[in-house]
């Protein structure tokens, strides 16, 4: 491909047409900003869909990729994730999007395509290319036609200089086409899938923590708005407006709980009591409630709902704990986030905004200022320190302080936003009641499966063995050869029946699990898996046998999913125990998009863990990776050593 393309570029026609091609690429670069504006405006219009305008905007990058291959000899693959399939109607006639049900396919398809374009990194890279291409690609492509055109215009003034400019533009044309194609590949090609180094991970984590600290300062102000709104509605119309305001605040607080857990790893459970049901109306159409602000009889359903909701809110301790947290967010943020946020914003502002501002002020006033002069006048102790160095140092210090500040804020928030003891016990009782019923049903189904397998498999074979031996007994005197053949067949059937019994026992409780423990049993699963699997174990002892069995079958299901559904090439299984918690992490490099749907394998694992008060956490963005974490509270016994092994690496 490259040699043929280069050969054509080396001809006279190739050199002569290169400036014209560069001119076309420069014009293409100028189309980027208007298309970016049209995409932004159309995406915010709401209809037909933001995904529609983003997809139409992809036509320009697609054309740039084709021209890079045709004119510059640089092949660029399309980096986009596959579009989501259309929603499928459930057997009961509903369309499902997560846990939400829809009667029409329009909204689930709309939301799926919106998530598709919003979460695809190629979308951001396309938008960045449209923004930067006029400054980079346009300049590169415009150089050759500018020289050639300027030279032609200058021929009548100074013929040698004009001819030299024309020749230079024609000579640079093919090279500029190749440079432009390489620049196009920088943003419009799929990024290489390689793990960042340790330093890059550390810098990225602290930069992300710094951005989250600055965002937390803004979110603290939003929390104050919700707190003030609740206070005002309590004083004005408590029965009508306060419950609605509390529900709005709960959505914000629940979102903050999720973000705190995502940013710091400190998970905060939902503490709210379930909403009580509305009683049936009396024969006269009125509703009688056990509690109300005025009375217990309500003539309309709306009044009864408002009174019941008001009583539910006012009795739930979580409502008041949320209100206290909303009021305390600003003072807590002032103590924890003020210093790192000021260092980050101030340092980056010193580097960027202050430099531009002082330069613009110098152009307007004629007075030459520099950021260093402002810095030294404001902080005399930093005299002699260059302004960029001071700004970078301040931002770095702020980012270094950010993770600790976020962690302390998460711990303080958990003390208020977590469930109270009564709510925790009530939730635990409900969970255990539900899980006990599920385990009872699962055990009954398992017993029926074992009975069916024994009846249809091993039992039938042993009956056939007995009948064959009886027939051979009758033939042994008359036809010894036929009797021997029948006895050999009975022997084969007995071996097959024994194999079926072993498979059945392995499905109930694998022998390797009882003999060698969970670590070696999981290693056996990894060795039998149809993909590269690595097992890392840090278990200083053994857990109870029921928990070992639950984890074993859960890991087996996850390995099967990684190979069958995720199209993964490598999976890492990690088992560790710390602070009374067994944690199992299964991470694969597959295509992602997994979900714990009702009736699926992940849902079955979650039901299995409910019996041990365990938790399953799933992270599976489209494009991968998929990380499944199982957490089970338990104790250990009989110390073991910590090991790490894989298919291609020795145990260490």
Which keywords apply here?
652 residues, alpha+beta, six-stranded mixed beta sheet, two-stranded antiparallel sheet, 10 strands, extended, disordered N terminus
Task: Write a structural description.
The structure is a single chain. Helix 4 (50-57) crosses helix 6 (106-119), helix 10 (198-236) packs antiparallel against helix 11 (242-264) and helix 13 runs antiparallel to helix 17 (387-417). The chain is extended. Residues 1-9 and 640-652 have low confidence and may be disordered. The chain is built from 22 helices and ten strands. With 652 residues, it is α+β, with helices and mostly antiparallel strands. The two termini are 48 Å apart. A six-stranded mixed beta sheet has the order 8-9-7-6-5-10, covered by helices on one side. The chain has a two-stranded antiparallel sheet with strand order 1-2. Keywords: ATP-binding, Kinase, Membrane, Nucleotide-binding, Phosphoprotein, Transferase, Transmembrane, Transmembrane helix, Two-component regulatory system. Its EC number is 2.7.13.3. Residues 546-636 form the Histidine kinase/HSP90-like ATPase domain. InterPro entries: HATPase_C_sf, HATPase_dom, Put_sensor_dom, Sensor_HK_TwoCompSys, Sig_transdc_His_kin_sub3_dim/P. It is an enzyme of class 2 (transferase).
């Amino acid at each position: 491909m490259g040699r043929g393309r280069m050969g054509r570029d080396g001809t006279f026609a190739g050199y002569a047409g290169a400036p014209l091609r560069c001119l076309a690429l420069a014009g293409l670069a100028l189309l980027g900003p208007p298309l970016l504006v049209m995409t932004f405006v159309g995406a915010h219009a709401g209809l037909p869909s933001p995904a529609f305008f983003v997809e139409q905007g992809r036509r320009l990058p697609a054309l740039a990729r084709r021209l890079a291959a045709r004119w510059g000899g640089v092949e660029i693959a399309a980096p986009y994730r596959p579009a989501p399939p259309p929603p499928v109607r459930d057997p009961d006639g509903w369309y499902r999007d997560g846990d939400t049900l829809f009667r029409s396919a329009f909204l689930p398809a709309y939301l799926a395509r919106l998530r598709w374009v919003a979460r695809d990194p190629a979308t951001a890279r396309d938008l960045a290319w449209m923004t930067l291409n006029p400054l980079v690609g346009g300049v590169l492509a415009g150089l050759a036609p500018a020289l050639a055109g300027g030279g032609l215009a200058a021929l009548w003034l100074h013929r040698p200089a004009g001819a030299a400019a024309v020749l230079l533009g024609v000579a640079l044309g093919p090279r500029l086409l190749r440079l432009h194609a390489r620049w196009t590949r920088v943003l419009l090609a799929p990024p290489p899938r390689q793990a960042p180094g340790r330093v890059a991970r550390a810098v990225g984590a602290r930069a992300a923590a710094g951005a989250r600290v600055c965002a937390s300062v803004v979110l603290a102000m939003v929390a104050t708005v919700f707190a003030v709104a609740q206070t005002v509605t309590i004083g004005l119309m408590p029965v009508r407006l306060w419950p609605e305001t509390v529900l709005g605040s709960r959505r914000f607080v629940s979102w903050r709980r999720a973000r705190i857990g995502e940013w710091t790893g400190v998970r905060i459970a939902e503490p709210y009591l379930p909403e009580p049901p509305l009683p049936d109306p009396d024969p006269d159409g009125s509703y009688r409630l056990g509690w109300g602000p005025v009375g217990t009889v309500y003539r309309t359903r709306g009044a009864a709902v408002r009174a019941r909701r008001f009583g539910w809110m006012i009795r739930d301790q979580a409502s008041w704990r949320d209100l206290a947290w909303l009021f305390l967010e600003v003072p807590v943020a002032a103590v924890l986030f003020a210093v790192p946020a000021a260092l980050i914003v101030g340092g980056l502002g010193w580097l960027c905004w202050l430099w531009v501002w002082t330069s613009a002020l110098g152009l307007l006033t004629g007075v030459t200022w520099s950021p260093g002069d402002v810095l030294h006048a404001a902080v005399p102790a930093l005299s002699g320190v260059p302004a960029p160095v001071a700004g970078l140092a301040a931002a770095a210090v702020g980012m270094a302080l950010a993770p600790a500040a976020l962690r302390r804020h998460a711990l303080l928030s958990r003390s208020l936003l977590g469930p109270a003891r009564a709510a925790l016990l009530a939730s635990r009782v409900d969970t255990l009641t539900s899980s006990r019923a599920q385990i009872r049903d699962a055990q009954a189904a398992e017993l029926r499966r074992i009975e069916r397998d024994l009846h249809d498999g091993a039992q039938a074979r042993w009956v056939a063995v007995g009948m064959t031996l009886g027939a051979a007994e009758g033939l042994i005197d008359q036809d010894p050869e036929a009797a021997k053949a029948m006895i050999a067949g009975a022997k084969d059937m007995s071996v097959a029946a024994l194999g079926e019994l072993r498979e059945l026992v392995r499905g109930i409780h694998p022998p390797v699990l009882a003999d060698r423990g969970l670590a070696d049993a999981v290693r056996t699963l990894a060795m039998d898996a149809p993909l590269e699997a690595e097992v890392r174990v840090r278990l200083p002892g053994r857990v109870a046998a029921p928990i070992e069995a639950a984890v074993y079958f859960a890991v087996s299901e996850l390995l099967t999913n990684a190979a069958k559904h995720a199209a993964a090439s490598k999976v890492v299984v990690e088992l560790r125990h710390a602070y009374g918690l067994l944690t199992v992490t299964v991470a694969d490099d597959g295509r992602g998009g997994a979900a714990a749907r009702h009736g699926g394998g992940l849902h079955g694992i979650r039901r299995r863990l409910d019996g041990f008060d365990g938790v399953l956490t799933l992270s599976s963005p489209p494009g991968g990776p998929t990380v499944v974490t199982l957490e089970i509270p338990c104790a250990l016994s009989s110390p073991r050593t910590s090991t790490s092994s894989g298919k291609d690496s020795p145990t260490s």
